[in-house]
Amino acid sequence: MEEHDCQSTTHDYPHPFIHGVKLTRAQRIRGIILGSILFPLRITLAALFFLIIWPLARLRLAGLSEEDRSRPVTGWRHWLFHPIVWLLSRAVFFSLGFLWVKVKGRRADLKEAPVLVVAPHSGFLDMLVLCPSQLATVVSRSENASLPVIGALLEFNQSVLVSRKDPESRKKAVTQVTERLTSNGYWPQMLMFPEGTTTNGRALIKFKPGEYWQENNGCLIFIVLQFLPVYNPSQEEKNDPNLYADNVQKLMAKDLGIPATDYVMEGGVPVSKLGGLSLPLESPARKTLSLLLKNGLEASEVEAALDRMIDRCQSGAQGSKASAEELASVLGLTDRETAVTVCDLYSKDETVDFRQFYLSVAALSGFVSIKTLLHTAFSLFDREGRGSLSAEDLSDLMGALLGLPQHSTTELYLEASKQGQLTEENLLQVLTTHPTYQRVVNEYLQPEEAGSHLSFTSLANWKAVNNNGNVHNSNGSLHYNKKFE
């Protein structure tokens, strides 16, 4: 297999969270014809197999006490029900079009590898990998236990259930997983998707502390499942789980021939991590600029609107929170839906913090320098007027500048504070001279030069905004070019 440098500093990684499907006319016609025949047939067969599985899955643990359920199922309950449910599970996928599964490599036995990690994770049908792995146990959301059929299968599988909203549930899940993985073969193998979310499979996102891919070929789907050799961690990796996860990710990405990225999903938003900061793959401010351009706002109108926002924030009379209607009024928008869309970029309740809007948009507009912008930001978040920021103030300030809440600014705070004081001068110095944070400023907090980037100061040169929110100039070239080193 051709080798790839998974962490090339000059490589623009493909967006792992955007699924693009391009079909020829012939493919669309074939899909319509075959789909009208095969789709109802396949759904009917899959439903039939699921209905047969449902009671059988429940019978496996029927009559067992909670204490018995906390131990792996053995004896006749295992040898009777396990092969039947395995065969029916494979039949479900067969009926859905997954006719053949080509297996490459050797699956490590239980004592060699108590856990199988699978990547990339592209969707619910990834569960097909359970068949070649002999129905290895999984970790699943506790909410899934109440779903028809799925809940029965999770019970049959003796899955570890976890509620992401409950800290105690997460702790209990960690304890259960640790217990199973260190049971020296007492529990069956576990199967995990270390990315923690689904992607389009064009890159591996950062693993959270075997592989397969699929090709859709009309009405038949061919699967290749490859078991890689067991990865034994070094002592350094045992001491640093994040290093271990990163190295396994790179190894799997290399074999797949795709990049290994540091992208993660935070609060439903895809981000890249740098110096502890969460940098959105799609900047809310860039999308905002695109929407304002699309609605015909001139540079002077946007600049005037930003001035009104900052005046309101600094006066403190009305507060910094604004509704979609207030935002539309300040921006001079006649279309309320555009204001709602902008609010949705920054929050989930059709409101926007004018401090966040002003700082993130002004940073990319070119109306003010980074020094002036940081001075304004500092004055907005120095709540007590002490001339220095607390760690919490810094998190809020960086969240406003980047258009995304920041929860891990400890590294930046320690770097910028001197003698326990984080002054405006020290913060400016770190953001403009420190190699890591200088990248943040250059790539996220600066207007981009015309000819290769988006700049609101040259609105007259922009002619169109495409449907994806990317801005094009008069010669049609794309002016959104963000690099990750």
Automatic annotation (TrEMBL):
Keywords of this entry: Acyltransferase, Lipid biosynthesis, Lipid metabolism, Membrane, Phospholipid biosynthesis, Phospholipid metabolism, Transferase, Transmembrane, Transmembrane helix
Signal peptide: none
Residue ranges of domain EF-hand in the record: 369-404
A GO cellular component annotation in the UniProt record: endoplasmic reticulum
Keyword Membrane: yes
InterPro entries named among the record's database cross-references: EF-hand-dom_pair (IPR011992), EF_hand_dom (IPR002048), LPCAT1-like (IPR045252), Plipid/glycerol_acylTrfase (IPR002123)
PROSITE patterns xref list: EF_HAND_2
GO terms (BP aspect): phosphatidylcholine acyl-chain remodeling; phospholipid biosynthetic process
GO molecular function: 1-acylglycerophosphocholine O-acyltransferase activity; calcium ion binding; lysophosphatidic acid acyltransferase activity
Pfam families for this protein: Acyltransferase
Protein family: Belongs to the 1-acyl-sn-glycerol-3-phosphate acyltransferase family.
Entry protein name: Lysophosphatidylcholine acyltransferase 4
Organism in which the protein naturally occurs: Seriola lalandi dorsalis
Source organism phylogeny: Eukaryota, Metazoa, Chordata, Craniata, Vertebrata
